[in-house]
Write a structure and sequence with these properties.
2 domains; two-stranded antiparallel sheet; elongated
Length: 121
């Protein structure tokens, strides 16, 4: 997780430093244009990186435990979320969650989820 964050910081620093050059040619960006472009890249790219880091952390276990589970398995919350839990922006504190992440992509067939019959509940 920290390696990915370091890569992000180094990449954004390189972009900003590259855009801060004083010398200019006809096809180069001004410093203000470079900063604006770097801000847009950060705003667009940071959620993707955050999601990737979060997904890596949440699936990096051998078997389901707590809120974490490997790919293609469910993690079941057995208790209501505590309001101080900030693993996502805000959990609903009156909801029990089951979370699963699939490795299926658009080119692959989807997995099947079988829900056993209950006694009327």
């Amino acid at each position: 997780m920290q390696i990915q964050m370091k890569i992000v910081v180094v990449t954004l620093t390189a972009i900003l430093l590259g855009c801060a050059k004083e010398e200019q040619t006809d096809d180069s960006l001004t410093a203000a244009e470079g900063r604006a472009l770097a801000q847009e890249a950060f705003i667009f790219g940071m959620p993707i990186i955050y999601f990737s880091i979060n997904q890596g952390v949440m699936t990096n276990v051998a078997k389901p435990e707590g809120a974490r589970a490997p790919y293609n398995q469910f993690a079941h919350f057995r208790e209501f979320a505590d309001p101080s839990n900030r693993t996502v922006v805000a959990w609903n504190v009156d909801t029990l969650y089951s979370i699963g992440r699939s490795t299926s992509g658009p080119s692959q067939s989807f997995g099947r989820c079988r829900i056993p019959a209950t006694d009327g509940g």
